[in-house]
Amino acid sequence: MPDAAASEAQLQTSRFKVPGEGNSAAISVATMVTLIVLWFLITNMGWVKPLFLPSPQAVIQQFYEYLTGSANDKTLLQHSAASISRVSVAFALAVVTAVPIGIAMGMSRVARGIFDPPIELYRPLPPLAYLPLIIIWFGIDELPKVLLIFLGSFAPLAMAARSGMKSASQEQINAAYSMGASYGQVIRHVILPSALPDILTGMRIAIGFGWSTLVAAEMVAANVGLGQMVLNASNFLRTDIVIMGIIVIGVVAYLFDLFMRWVERKLVPWKGRT
To answer: What are phi and psi for residue 262, nearest 5 degrees?
Structure first.
C-alpha cells in the first residue's frame, strides 16, 4: 500500500508542471498585436479625439523626429542618456550601500536597531512627499535628482538583503562549523550564497522603483531627460510626445529588467530548481 500511495503521489506531481516563460510568449505577442490594432482602429475611426489619444502614426512620427533630431528639442538619445545615467549612478550607490547595511541588519540586532527605524519610516513615503525637502537641502543641480532615485532604490534593496540572510538553514551552518569553518567563512561560503537570490530579486525591484522615480526626480529643474521631455510635452498638451515618451520609458525599464534577469541566471543558476 505505501508503494502504491507513493506511485500515485509521484504521478500527480508529474502531471503538475509550472508553465515556463516560453509557453506564454505567443499569447503575449498576440495580446500586444491586438492592443495595437484596437488603438489604430479607435483613433483612425475618430472615436477618440487626438488630444486624448493620438494615433499610432502620430506617435511613430514623433519618435522618428526625436530620433533623427528634427524635433524642436534635444534628441531622444540625449534624453535617454541623461535619464539612464542618473538611474545607473543612483542604483550603483544603492547597491554598494544598501546591500552591506541589509546584510548587517540580518546578522546583528544592533545594526537592525540602528537602521530599521529610519528605513521603515521613509520606505512607505512617495518620493514627491520628500522632494521639496531635498530641493531645500541640496538645491536643483544633479545631486537632488540622483539622491531622490537613490532613496527610491535603497529601501527595497536593504530589506531584500536583510531577508536573504535568513535563507541559509541551520543545518547548512552547523555542517560548515563541523568541518572547521570560521565565522567569516560561514558568512562568505554559506550565508551569502544563500542570500544572493533574494539580493538579486531586491535589485530587480529596486531598479524598478528607481526608474519609476525618474519623472519625479527630473521635475527638479531638469533640462534634459525622458521625464523632463514628458512633463514639458504635457504642459503644451502634446499627447503624442507624452505617449512616445511613456513607451520609451517602459521599453528602457523592460531592458533593465531583462539585464537583471540575465545577471540572475548567471550568478544563481540554481534558483527555482529542486
So the answer is: -65, -45
CA distance 106 to 166: 7
- Please, which residues have CB within 8 angstroms of residue 169's CB and are 6 or more apart in sequence? none
Give the separation between CA 23 and CA 189, rounded to whole angstroms.
Answer: 36
Q: Using alpha carbons only, what angle is made at residue 211 by residues 207 and 213, rounded to the nearest 5 degrees?
A: 120
CATH 1.10.3720.10 for the 70-267 domain, yes or no: yes
DSSP state letter for 21: G
- Residue 242, amino acid: V
- pTM equals 0.79
- The tens digit of pLDDT for each residue in 68-83 reads 888 888 899 999 999 9
Of 165, 164, 251, 253, nearest in space to 202 by CA: 164
Better pLDDT: 90 or 18: 90
DSSP 147: H
| Closest by CA position to 44, among listed 55, 28, 29 | 55
Contact call for residues 95 and 158 (beta carbons, < 8 A): no
Residues above pLDDT 70, as percent of the chain: 89
Q: Which residue shows C-alpha cell 539580493?
A: 199
**What residues have CB less than 8 Å from 201, skipping those under 6 apart?**
160, 264
